Every structure is written in structure tokens, then in C-alpha cells.
Structures
1.
Amino acid sequence: MGLKQLSSRDVIGQFFEALEAATGVTWIPRVSMLFPSNQQFENYKWLGFSPALRRWIGERQAKSLRVNGVTIENLLYESTLGIDVDDIRRDKTGQIRIRIKEQVDEAISHWATLLTTLIQNAETVACYDGQFFFDTDHQEGDSPTQKNKLTATEYGELNVATPTNPTANELADVILKMIQHLYSFKNDQNRPMNRFAKEFLVMVPVGMWGNAMQAVTKANLNTGTGVRDNPLMGSGLRIGVESNTELTWTDKLAVFRTDGNAKPFIRQAELLDGASQAGDESLGIQVQSIAEGSEEEFKNNQWLFGIKASRNAGYGYWQHGVLAQLS
């Protein structure tokens, strides 16, 4: 079917087809949980932890939701595509389909931008316990004071030859220590937090990606003076590596637990009328148009197709993430 035979309704159909087919950025659902929203602000009081089993003596001891939590405000975003009426007449179907898919891809990957901003600012912005997400003095309830921001002071393995270009051999030890540290976290009842963790995502700047991939996949590592067995192999852990091109880090990396019931970050999407319900990444995206017979067509010889989304992201469990500063 040529585009000259298409109406604006058909073009909107192509938008929704693209939304259904879009897969998004694969690390987004691994480190964040998505919640639908029906109001401007949502408050997440559940951050904190469920009570452990106790011997039943006397009455039940209920643990209530937190008085304070994380409040996330939905913010409005838009992207508008103009299609020239002459392109419709000249049957530029293939080119316009590409533009539609690119616009949808941008809308989906917008989640990655929101989450990257959180990760980038995590050393200076507070999470639910009032401390910075990556910090050295988290403490709540009966937990000890804990840190998820590490330096060579905590682990000598973080002192590498070239902090902006650590070797695969060095990174294997760094990643192992970061995961080890995640296992040490206690919840607000002083109980182990990550005892069942088996899946992790290592997020690195672009310059570290190649060596980080080798660090989690190669059975043998070059030490500079010989070869040794990779300590990450045979651990039973599933470790992925993501090069986040939007991060400005050069000598830092983060490890996130990805198999918990809760995640390090929260995504929130307001359910707008007529919005996409296709999947997590496209949830809440609304498509609108100004087309046939409109003033825009008369004045500017074009149809307009707009994507609209009301969404935001915020911090979840700091206990599922750890940052390492190499030196």
C-alpha cells in the first residue's frame, strides 16, 4: 500500500505497530521496576523491608509501611514529527516508516536517559533513607552503618595501574569484590539483604567495556607475568556487562543486583487516555495527530504526529547497587 493511499489513522497505526515491536534498551528492566500511575505524584512507602518470621509469643507484631518514602512526580514529555504533504503525494512510504520507527526508538530509549541521569547523580542526590544513593553512611532501623560507595581504602583491588583503563585481570578482581560487598548488606532488621542474589549487571564507561567483557567471559586472564584462572568463573553467578554511552564516568563502575523482587530504580508511567499498553518500555506513550483538512496542512503543507508521555524515574533500593572509584 503506497503512502498516498494512507490516512493519518493508518500512519498512527504504524506508530502503534512500532511500539509493539520495540524492545528498548535491554538493561532498563534489569535495574528498574515499572509502576503505572494515575496521578501527578506517587508515593512509594513500601521501601524498607518485610518482617522476618519470629516465634509467635503473645500477639502478632505488625510492621507498617514507612511514614516517609520516595515521592515521584510525573513530568510531561513530547516528540513531534512533521510529514510533508508532498512526501505523501510522492509516495515516500519507506522513508516515513523509518522516521516513525526512529521516533519510537527515541521514546523507548528515553527511559535509559532518565535512569542514567539518576545513576550519574547518585553520589549527590538522596534516596528513601535520606542519604545519597551511593554513600558511605547508610543506616536505618537495626542495621549497622553501611556503605555502597567504595574506594581502595575498603578493597585494595580497586587500586589499579591505570584507573581509566583497568585490565581484564584487574577488573575481574574489582567486580568480585563489589559483588562480595553487595552480599554484606543488612536490612533494617539487621538481616542479610542479598543472600539469594545470583544475577548482576556491571555498568561501565565506554573505555572499560572491552576489558570488562573479557573479565566476565574469559576462563583465563593475562596477569602481565603469566596466566591465571578467572575468579569469576565457576561461581554460579550470572554477570552481564553494559557500556552506558551517556555516562561521563572515566574511572568508576557500578554493579547492580538484577534478580531481586525490588530493583535499584523505579520507573513510573502515567496511563494517559488511548496510550500504548504494548509493553513495559512503551507503557503510557500516547500518539496524537493534526492531519487531513487541518489548519496545519493548509498553512504549512504538513501533517503533525506527536508522541506524548507523562513519566519519571526515581531511586529504589540502594542495597542493590554499589559504586567503585578506581585509583
2.
Amino acid sequence: MEFRRLGASGLMVPALSFGTGTFGGRGPLFSAWGNTDVQEARRLVDICLDAGVTLFDTADVYSDGASEEILGAAIKGRRDQVLLSTKTSLPTGDGPHDAGSSRSRLIKACEAALRRLGTDYIDLLQLHAFDAGTPVEEVLSTLDALVRSGKVRYVGVSNFSGWQLMKSLAVAERYGYPRYVAHQVYYSLIGRDYEWELMPLGIDQGVGALVWSPLGWGRLTGKIRRGQPLPAQSRLHATAELGPPVDDEYLFSVVDVLDEIAKETGKTVPQIAINWLLQRPTVASVIIGARNEQQLKDNLGAVGWSLTPEQIARLDAVSQRDAAYPYFPYRRQEGFARLNPPVV
């Protein structure tokens, strides 16, 4: 397994990491993802560690905390072999301190995560969303205290906009607080908005990308084809409206090229989609998920080889879409393009 530096930090992470959203199966969203119990989780962790996948990602909202509990049980006795990443800030209840990134909430959430995970420190704590109601200075000073206490080692964010992340980095710089080294983002062959602003920001500021949903919310599994109904077992039946929207014809055009390259390489559609992401700037680790051993082993086949430049160019071309304002002039107008060359 290849290891990569996470942003401008000293932390080395595997190119593939494992997401535990399938652990627990509580609630309408996560029950559609999977319902892995402790015994199954141990087996999946075994397979990951054998393959060199040492980073495991979870969140307090995943199955109402059950994901953290099951992950903690699955790694019991081998904490020193793994990196633990968890997230907080999204609502976990109806109380006034059950959502957001206030000092009260962050301390409470961190303590609860440590308890559920069965550990005394978190390798990477990420804010799951920006809290517009709490001053950035309060958020970062609290994270600074958690890092200084030894309960958290690195901090990051997820699903921030460019200005939210940049403002946070500026405040951290001003007061000497820990800088965010990771941004957990949605990025896939059928969801390339990350490239418009957040990727250039990540390059400039040293923020590494941890990619969630690399298969486009379950659409790049190789089982969805033009003119065919959704497979009966697809989680899209229950979750399609909750995830990033995708135009059908756009999806099928990308899948057509993935199918062509699958025949050329002998790899599966998911393996090709993940391998493409691993060639992209700022990507430190792609988070893979799996309901079972077969899915996990197939996703692990995305590393140890590389697409050719010609194959990457074909995937780039079929998946490219015009950026929103103010980014589209950089691609369409020579003057803008000279000042702002595209990220490749």
C-alpha cells in the first residue's frame, strides 16, 4: 500500500482508507448503506490491515454512534496498528448543544467519541460541516485545547466551502492554532465540482483531500447501465434523493468509457474509477466502503497499478463539465487561462 502525506502535515496515510458508514445499520439512511455487526467488522478490519489500509473513518452521526462503537470493538487490542478519523458538528439530537461546533459541543462530542471508540486519543478529528453560528476563533481555540490535551492529534474539516476553509486557515495562522490539514470531500468521475475552487485552495494551502463516495453515491459500481432498471439490491432505491444529483445521460456516458477501459485493463469499473481519483492533485486518501468482504477486496484492487495517460485523458474528457461562475472564464477565455492555468 502506498502512503501519502496528509496535506502540509507530518501524518502519512494510506492511499486507500476504510469508511465505516456501513457499521451499525441504524436509521433510514445508514440502514440502506449496511448493517455490519462487530464480528463482521473485525473481519473487514483484518482484511484492511493485511492490505496495508490502516486509516478508518467514522462519525458520530453514523448510525447514531453505533459505527464508532462497532469500530472501537473491532480494533480492540490493536489500537497501535490503526489511525482513527471521526467527525462531529452535525446534529445528533434535539438539544441546544447537540449540533454545531461550539466549545461546549466539541468537548462533549470528543469525549463521547473517545468513549465509543474505546481509545484515549483521536488521530484526526474533522468538523462535519461549517457552523455559521459559532465564531471561528471559538472553534479553533477549542480544537487547540483538545490537541494540547493529547485527545486529538490532527484536525480537519468536511464539506466546507472555499471561503469557510480559507477564513478558518487565516484565523489559525493569526493566533497560532492548529491548521486544518485535511478536507473530507465528495469527489468522483461524475462529481468534479471539488476541482473548481477547493482543489486549488488545497494545493495553495497544503490541505489534503480525503475523498468520500468515490463511486458517485453508488452509481459507479458497474451495475448501473443505460436502459436497465436499478439492481434490486442497490441502495439508490432508498438514498438517491439524499445524495449528489447526477444527470442520467452524463452518468451513462461516463460508464460507457469506464466499460471500455475495463475491457482494456481487465479491471472492474469501481477499480478504474478509484484509480483515476488517486492520480488527482491533493488527493491523500480515497475512502472506500463495503458491505461485505467481496466488495472490500474488489475496491482494494484499485491500487498497485495505474491508468495510462491516454486512458486518464479519455476519462477526463467524458466527465468534464463547465464550471459555475466565476470559474468558467478560466477555461473559456485566453486571458483568464493565462493568469489561472487549469489544475492537472
3.
Amino acid sequence: MIPHFSSRPFIGLLLPFFLLLTFKTTSGADQVSVIRIGILHKTYQAVLKPLGNFSVSDIQTGEQKTLNADEKYLAEASDSQEIKLGPYSFGKQIRLAPMENNSILTINQKNYRGKFIITAHPEGTLTLVEEINVEDYLAGVLGREMSSHWPLEALKAQAVISRTFALKNLGRFNEAGFDLSADNQSQVYGGSDQDDPKFLQAVQSTQGQVLTYKGNLISTYFHACCGGHTTSAGNVWGKVKSKSLRGVPDTYCRVSPHYAWKAYLPNLDIMDALQKNGFTLTQVKGIRIWRRDQTGHVLTLKISSDKKPIVVRANDFRNWIGNTDFRSTLITQISSTRKGYEFRGRGWGHGVGLCQWGAKIQAEKGRRYTQILKFYYPDTQVRRLE
């Protein structure tokens, strides 16, 4: 049974706007203007098409060539770590730079606006990294996370947390040669294909603003829809304690198309997922909710089998099964069918931090982006980097 969630207005409605302060981060993130985004990592081929002329420099020898506008160039690597770019051959690392302002490089039919490093690996693969200004990067993130039809205040809230996420996670993929990936291992980035005046306005009007707790950048997790209550980071991933990432009741996202969901899981798929993750069984005999947290999200599931009972973290189970259909751990019902189980629940995503649909509705009701952030990240402050 789902605990009853209070319908009383959240106390944050009565709080004033954030005071926008200026500060220096202890990590030196305030000094960062350019970040490295892993566009492709260890791919065998990529098709490049400059929209405007680009120079290409061999980083080791200094040799330079020019890529002509609107011509296609196939990039690939040999086993000896030689990079082949159309008719040209280089050493194991090259740099591409636009020769005119606003030139774009198309990589596998997606447009990007920065400078680029291409590195060859011994197994004959390539890594393509874009070097781009943080603020330009954010414009390419917003387009993959929210719609330009959404209210500006919601977009501004997303801009602040996406900027904070980027600076908090600098160097996360240093071993691979970049700071952040372009996929959901970091935050999804669509390059300059996502340029839109409204996204640019949201980024520019919050330029340099980040979210902090006691002067430090926080982990600004976000998700599509919380289903009525966000949850704490510790309840999802364990051993993560943060007062700014505790769960809050949220009545705003009820109108979301993702508020309620159901998913049918065949017994064979459940068994396969469990076996791949180290459990021994040949039959699933029952699944039930074992523990919930105080927000209603399921912490653990108990699975009866032909062997000993299995207790698994609900978030792990969701990821093993596939989180596209199994949308959240805010599970309201599990029903047995002849060949599997039907799960019903609310929300979409891990449920930690900002609920994007809740932010949308709050903005439609006239709330400022600072109020929205205060709601989802209690006890935090928006501060401006120097």
C-alpha cells in the first residue's frame, strides 16, 4: 500500500527568491571556460563534413591540411595508430579548428560548433572529442532535456542544474581523453542541432549560475517525472547522504503523460536478467514489494524461485530489466499473470532531484526558476561563478 502523501502546500512557496551571490569553487571550476565532450569513443569510422573550412593539424609533427566546406571526409584508423581523413594521413592525434567564425562540423550527420581532437587507438578505433565553451555546450543539452515550447523559467532551472552537473563532473572521463560524454552517462548533448533562441535565452539569462550547498557544487540529479514524490539519492544508489537531495512531495507533475505507467515482464525475461547478474534459478515463483522508503519508492523486491529467495534493490532490478518500460521504482502494484508479471507505478526516472514535468507546471503557474530549484533541492543556493 502506498503511503498517503500530504496535500499541504510546500513551505518553499513562502520562501523568498535566492540571493544570487558570487563565489569561487574550491575545485577551481570557476576558471573553466572550455570543456571536452566525448562525441564518439572508440568507433571504427566516422563521416565528417565541414560547413565552412577547417584546418587540420597533426599534433605530433605540426603538419597542416585544410578540409574544404561541404566535402565529406571518412575518418578511420589503422592498427599502427595512423589516422586517415579522406585523402590525408596523419599520426595518432590531430586537431580540427574552424577557419571562419560560426563554422560547423558535421559528424555522422550531427552538427557541432567547437574545435575537435581525434585520437587513434591501437585496436584501430578513434575517439572524437569536441572542445567547446561551457555556455555553448549547455544550449546543446537543453534541447535534449526539455522542449522549447516549455516555459522559460523551467528552461532556466534546467540550465542551472545542467551547468552545475557539467562543472561538478569535470574530468570524469579523463582516462578516455574527455570530461563528459555526449550520452546519458553524463547528460545527453545534441550539439548545435539543438540551437533554439529560447534555449540560448535560458542559458544566457543564467550565465555562470550554479547550485551549491554550503558553498560547494552539488550533484544536480534530475529526471522526467517523479510521480508525486521525489526520493533521496541514498535510497536509490545507497551510501549517498545529502540534505539537498532528500525527497519532497510534488503534486505539480500529476498532469504529466508519464505520471502513471504499467509494464508486463515475462518470466523468461526476469529469469534471464537475474541469471546475468549472478543469481542461480530456473523458475520465478513470485515477486513482491519487500521494503519502501518514506516517500513510497520501493527499495527492495523479494523474488521467490525454485532456489532460495532473492532480495534485490528495486533500482538495480529496474536497470537490469530495462528502464524504458519499467519506468520508476515508485511501484504501486505487482500482479501475477500466466507467463509473467504486470507492474504498475508512477513517474519516469530515478526520482532524485528535479522533476522536469513538475518544473514545467510550476513555471506555468508563475514560479521563478530560483523557487523551482529551492523546491527540489532544499537548503541550496544559486550562486554565480566569478
4.
Amino acid sequence: MLRRPFATLLLLLFLICVCLPVLVVRGCTFYDTPRTGGLTPHAGPAVTLRRVSNGTTEEISLEEYVKGVVAAEMPALFHLEALKAQAILARTYVVRRMRVFGGAGDPEHPAADISDDPTRGQAWLDQDSLKERWGILHFAGYWAKICRAVDETAGIVATYGGDLIEVAYHSTCGGRTEDSGAVWQASLPYLGPVECSWDRHSPHQARLVSLTWQELERKLGQQAGTLSVAAAGGKSAVVTVLSRTAGDRANQVRIGDLTTTGVDVRRALELPSARFWVSESSKGATLTVKGYGHGVGMCQYGADGMATQGSKYQNIIAHYFPGVSLRPIFRE
């Protein structure tokens, strides 16, 4: 009479120990519904990172790599939600390039997915470098904050139409972000200009840059005396912004007989941004420059301002990247 209950008990144990785990563990699927966190700090594939400072290539877990990028690219004093938004963008940027996900890797270093050269992508710093930057007294608190931002968004990336987005961010937009086509000749639907009134606490909000005509001639490679003679004539402005971009930055600029782009003027004159206005005197030109950086994508100081006013990382990314969705890399 005890056989039937015993058999039933065995059947229940079989279902709990064998069948239930099979139903729970279904493997991994690339992209699915959003979630907050879920991956451990060391989960996921390794990033092959080229260290330009010493010429070495090393493997580091994806989430640890993201921590080094967030710490290098955004002030640790920023609001936690801004740091979370930065973490998602940093992760998206590298996953798009990782060969294990079908990316092309680093074209200059075939053995690496990416380098830590900020002029070609994202900056990255190890903990020893961060101790030097922050100081030993601040390191523990700042690093814990960075880790929290990354861990609480672990595995989340930004997509558009099911594909990873091309990530862009900068320090300060000065009131309005830029269309990607105005900077890189490739307009993307989620990288268009948006208004931004949250970056006013940035130290890069506005700056005056004064240059003599001789300095302008030297920096622009023009013949000595060309601009000063034109200024002495007084018939028309020597420096004229002929047109502006959708992001209110200088597009076409005429300087003497030279017509060039605002991006080229910014590069040649080493300006904080291409969002500038010009006034002249007999001695030279003064440029009022707003913002810092190329202006495309997320304004970092704007993200901090949004977060301070109560916005979550989802709202921050939605504002600066219209139409973009947040997805986990894997669904367990």
C-alpha cells in the first residue's frame, strides 16, 4: 500500500531535479526585452584590449572593461543615473566592435577588438591609473560608484531597428546637439539635433577666444598680411559664417578669400567646438564659442543635469537618441 505514494514521490523528485532546470535554462538569445542588471560583474565574453601606452594586448571581461571606460570618460562626481547612461553607451560601443559578436575589431591592431586610444574611440583606465587621477583618498568611493552604475545596467545595450547603434557622446553641447551628418557626413536617424537645457553647470558652457589677424593667418596657413590688409580695408567682414548646421554650429565659413567648414575651422584654431560666433576689430577676431566637443549624441553634462532633475538613465538615452531601444545582450 506504500508503493503508490513512494512512486509519486519519486516522480515529483524527478520533475523538480531534472525537468524544471531544463525549462529554466534555455540557452542564450542575442537581444530581447529590456532588463535592469542581471549579469554578474565578470559575466560575458572577454574584450581584447590594445593598450597604446605600453603596446600590449590583454583580455578583460566585458563589464570590467565598461567600468574602466565610464571612469575615464565621465566625472565620477556625476549623478548615478548619468553614469548608468554612460555605461550603456560604452558597452554598446565595444560590443558593436567585438569580433565574437561579428564586429570588425580594431583596424589598426588586428589582434584586438578595441584600443584605449581616446582619439580613435573610447578612453579606458585601469585602477592604478584611476588612483593617480582621483587620489587614494577618493578612489574607493568613486570606484564603488562606477561599479554600481555598471553592475546595475550589466548586459544592457542600445539598439535601433534591432541593430546596435553607432554610439557618440561629448562633454557639453551648449544648448543643442548636432546632426551626425554635419560632422561625419553620415546622417543617422537617432543622431539628429535635440534641444538641451541641462548642461548650464558645465565649465565649458561658453568661452571667448581672441586671435590677432597674424595668429589667424598662421593657424590657417594663409599668406602673411592677407587678413590684416583685408581688415584695414573695412569694406566687409573678414570672417563670416555663411551658413549653420541643424545643430546651430558653423557650417560654411569664409575667412578672407578662403571658404571652408566650421569643423575645419574648429580643428585649425583648436576651438572647444564649432558652435561659434565672430566679432572683429582692427587687430583681430574674437570668437564666442559654446560647448565642448563635436556635439553629436549624448551631452554628458546635459545627462548629469537631467539626472539631477530626476530623469532615469532610460529617459536620458531616449532624449539624446530618439527611437533607440534598450536590450540585454543575452536572455538567459
